[in-house]
Design brief:
The chain is an alpha/beta fold. The chain starts with a strand and ends with a helix.
């Protein structure tokens, strides 16, 4: 199951991704926001990150204007590796090399068609498990 959330800057893009998740039969929980009215991304980013870190959800998707602010909030939660991706290569690489567990994108940066392809790539790419990548992730985890 996927945890998904956004602020007002990512609201329209979230609607596109939710439609794709529904079409693909992928279960999710929407953590908000639920309208384009201005809101603060830290609360939503933190809520999704806590849920993913607790193991309640396999992965998360976060959206704001750029993807940056909401990913910063998510990355404050120990065990979270939220990555901003603007193309499919980044989504594939962050899953394979970083075992990223949250995808972040910007509604003012990535168009809906590309965002769906990035999401699909992120959700369908496995962590490589290569020892060098495992060691690097362990070093990141020690920072938490």
């Amino acid at each position: 199951m996927i945890a998904i959330g956004c602020d007002h800057g990512g609201f329209a893009l979230k609607q596109e991704i939710l439609a794709w998740l529904d079409h693909e039969g992928i279960e999710y929980r929407d953590f908000g926001c639920y309208e384009e009215k201005s809101c603060d991304y830290p609360e939503i980013g933190h809520a999704v990150a806590k849920a993913v870190a607790a193991g309640d959800y396999e992965k998360g998707i976060l959206l704001c204007g750029t993807g940056i602010g909401i990913s910063l909030a998510a990355n404050k939660v120990p065990g979270i590796r939220a990555a901003v991706c603007t193309d499919c290569f980044m989504a594939e690489a962050t899953r394979q090399h970083n075992d990223a567990n949250i995808l972040a994108m910007g509604g003012r940066v990535v168009g809906p068609g590309l965002a769906v392809r990035i999401t699909e790539t992120f959700l369908n790419t496995e962590f490589s498990g290569e020892e060098r990548h495992v060691q690097r992730i362990q070093k990141i985890d020690k920072i938490d």
